[in-house]
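Usage

Read records sequentially. Each one opens with the input sequence:
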Amino acid sequence: MSENSQHEAGKAFFGRRKGKPLRDRQARNLAEVLPALAIDPFGPSPDDLRSLFAAEVNTLRLEIGFGGGEHLLHRVREEPATGFIGIEPFVNSMAKLLGQVEGAEPDNLRLYDDDAVSVLDWLPAASLDQIDLLYPDPWPKRRHWKRRFVSQVNLDRFHRVLKPGGRFCFASDIDSYINWTLLHCRRHGGFSWQAKTADDWLTPYDNWPGTRYEAKARREGRSSAYLTFLKI
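and closes with the structure output:
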C-alpha cells in the first residue's frame, strides 16, 4: 500500500481507541466538557485560526497524540497568548486530560478526539507556528512501519499548514523511528533539521516538563532524541 492511500483505505496511524472502563466522572467529562472544547474538522475551515479561541492569541500550535496531556497542559498554562489544538484518539487519555481542566477549561485550548489527518486536511494553509509530535506510537515491527505517522504524505500536510519558518518538533526514544524521521524529512526537502551538535538533539526542549512515556523510557534504559525542523 502506498503512503498516499493509507488514510483513504481506513488504516489509522494509531492503535487501540480505548483501554480500561471509564469511571462515571470521566464518562461525564467526555459527554459534557469535551464538546465545549472540541473542533469540528468536517465543518467549514476558519479563515483565521485564531477565531477558534476565546483568548486573544498570537501564535498557534498543534500537538498530535498528547497522551496523558502532561506536555500539552504545561504549555497551555505557560503560554496564554498561544492557541493550542490537541489531538488524542485514545479515549482514556482524553478523559485524563479533561479531568485536569474540568471546571476551569483554558480559553487557549481546543481538542479533537480522532484521526489527526482530518484536522491537518481541514486547517488553513500556513496557519500554524509549530507542530509537536512527541513520543508517537513507534510501530516497532517492520511490517507496521508504514503506519508510522511520519510519512511523505503527512510531511506534505505539515508543510502545507505550517507558516514559513514554522517548527516541527519530534521526540522519541526509539532509535529506528528517530532515524526514520530524519530520513523522511531529508527526502522531503521542505524541512531543515536545526541540530548543529549532538547536544542540540539530546537536550530536551526549553521548559520541557517531561512525559510519562519519557519517564518509562528512562526506567527501561533508553535515552531520547528531541528533533527540531524548520519549514523551508
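Summary fields computed downstream for this record:
- The chain has a mean pLDDT of 91.
- The chain has one domain: 3-231.
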